[in-house]
Every structure is written in structure tokens, then in C-alpha cells.
Amino acid sequence: MYKEVDFENFLNYNFDLLIDARSPREYNFAHIKNAKNYYALNNEEFEEIGALYKKSKGLAKAKGASYICKNMSYHINELFQNYKIGSLVGIYCARGGKRSKAIALILAELGYRIVRLEGGYKAYRSYVSAFFQKKLNIEFLCLCGNTASGKSDLLNLLDNALNLEKLANHQGSSFGKIYGEQPSQKAFEDELFYFLKYYPYKTCFIEAESRQIGNLTLPLNLYQAMQNAKKIWCECDINFRIQRVLKNYTPMKKEIFLECVEKISPYISKEFKEKLCKNFENNNLKICIKMLFEYYDRVYKKPTKIDYFINSSNLDEAKKHLMSLNS
After folding, report:
1. Which of 77, 208, 215, 321 is the most buried (most CB within 10 A)?
2. Residues 284 and 150 occupy one common structural domain
3. Contacts by 66-72 with C-beta closer than 8 Å and gap 24+?
4. Residue 144 has what pLDDT?
5. Could you tell me which residues come within 8 angstroms of residue 262 by beta carbon, excluding any fewer than 6 positions away?
6. Domain that includes residue 206, residue range
7. β-pairing verdict for 17-20 and 88-92
8. Whether 153 contacts 244, CB under 8 Å
9. What is the model's pLDDT at position 14?
């Protein structure tokens, strides 16, 4: 079996395997959820064939075909060991061109049932972009509150919740980039798309965020839905807030701390900055945290209208309170 379908129909298949036939670099930048990278051309080959194609299309096609055959000789062994003949396999490349078609035809001849995505990853991205232009049919409940009031911890305890900071790999503040690199904008949107499109509940708890989370930007329809959502203020004892910061942000290397402080330097006095850095160097972390609370609590934009108040010092009790609002 060999079919070519648009993305709307592509979504309806329950594939045993979804193949991304693009180069590893393209795949690592962003890919369709659950896809595995069985590339037609590796990074170097892809660049070589692309350059050659501008000079001689015929030679580029011939050399590209030889590379694909070489790579497929490795892929086929792994595929055969993990996916029996007759398995339903989806496949795509960048634009639904020769890379995915070459692999699709080989696998179809071996007896795999093949469904190829027309237009490739580009068509998928067009579908995602259109999705983020539409109004979301989800009722959001937005958790607000000062830094370390337990908003993210609460989201992690709930089934019907979307943790944007987790998806963005960023804590949302000037000190947010502590877990390494963020995903690409496309990869971030891909995760959001699958979460929102197949979200099974009517309501969704979410943390109040600015539209920018580190280097990533929230889709406009999601951001607007958050702005229009009911607001829940999480009030928390300062000692619990301090403990959460110690748990989530330490240990922190000195150079990272200083880099983060530089980001807020335009908004704090020279004396405040010097005192903050000195306390960090002397390992007076609780004093540092209280000083940062002083800054962040002052600049945090509290919603003009708050629909509910909860105490988030005790997360289990706060969770029960949230679930009662959701019933």
C-alpha cells in the first residue's frame, strides 16, 4: 500500500512508525511529534546535494540517489528488526519531495503500508500556523501570584493543566534560563499544537505569563485566551517561597547568577546590586532571595481583577481548592 494524503487526513492515521526523512539537523531543530529520524541524506550529504543541484540537476539527482541507497541499507536493517513487514508507516520530508518519496517507495516494495504527507513538514507547519489563528475552545483558569508562590508546582500536580515554562524550558524570569537551552520556536509551537488540539478536558489551569518566555513567543490566540481567563491569586508565606527557590534554583554557579543579575541591572540601584552580589558570594542565599523578592514583588503586574484567592503554602490543600473551583 502506498498513499499520499494532506495533513488533515494524515492526522487520522495511527502509525506504527512515523518517519522524518529530513537530515538530522532539520529533525533536531523541529519535527512532528513522535517522528523518528530515518534520514535520506545526512547533514553533509544534504548540503552537498543542495549545492550540486544548482550546477547540475541530473548529477545531483544521481548522486543523491546513491547516498539514499547507501543510507537505506543501514536503516532497513534497523527497521526490519523493530517493525514487522505490513506495519503502517507515515513518512514526510521538508516539502513532500524526493527524499520522502524515495524512502517511501523502497519501504512499500518491501511490504510496509506507506502513507506519505503531501507537502511535507512545510504543509504541517502551515496547518499549525492556521490552528493558532483560530479561537481555542478551552476554558483557561490562570494562576497568578508572586515569584515562588507555587504556581508551577501546582500545575505539575494537576491533570488538566498546561505548564508553559516546562515546555519552554525556562522559568519565565531573568533567572529563568537555568536548565539549559530552550527549544526552537517551531519545536515549542509543535508541542503546544499537539497539546491543545487533543486536549481532553473542558478547562485548563495555566500560569499567568507574559507573551515572551525567554526566547520563545506564545501564539497570539493562546495569549489572548490567557488574558481573558479567570484569575486565581496564589498567596504564599514567604518562608515557603524561600524554600521553593532554594529547591529549584540552587546550586547556581556564580557566573550564571551574575549574568542573571545583569539583566535586571537597569531596574535596580548600584547599591542594591552590590549588596545582592556580595551576599551571594558569602553564601547568604536566604538574604539574596529576600532581596530578589523585594524586587520582583514590586515589578510583578497584579491583575486588575482577581476572581479567586487560594493559599498555596500547602500545595495539597491548594490543589483541593483548585479542584473545587473546577467542579
Report:
1. 208
2. yes
3. 67/40, 67/41, 67/42, 68/40, 68/41, 68/99, 68/102, 68/103, 71/39, 71/40, 71/41, 71/42, 71/45, 72/40, 72/102, 72/103, 72/106
4. 96
5. none
6. 134-325
7. parallel
8. yes
9. 96
pLDDT at 327: 64
Measured at the alpha carbon of residue 214, what is the angle toward residues 208 and 217, in degrees to the nearest 5? 70
| Claim to verify: residue 232 and residue 285 sit in the same structural domain | yes
201 and 99 inside one domain: no
Please count the structural domains in the chain.
Answer: 2
Q: How far, in Å, CA of 145 to CA of 208, rounded?
A: 8
Residue 103's nearest CA partner among 92, 87, 119 is 92
Q: Are residues 155 and 13 in the same domain?
A: no
Enclosing H/E stretch for 210: none
What single-letter DSSP state applies at residue 209?
-
For the CA atoms of the chain, what is the radius of gyration? Answer: 25
Q: pTM for this structure? A: 0.89
Q: How many whole angstroms separate alpha carbon 276 and alpha carbon 148?
A: 18
Residues of the chain with pLDDT under 50: none
* Type of residue at 148: A
186 Rama sector, left if φ>0, alpha if ψ -120 to 50, beta otherwise = alpha
Q: Closest Cα to residue 196, out of 134, 109, 268, 286?
A: 134
Amino acid residing at 49: I
In this predicted structure, what is the pLDDT of residue 228?
95
What pLDDT shows up at residue 75? 96
Residues 100 and 165 in one domain: no
Q: What is the pLDDT of residue 189?
A: 97
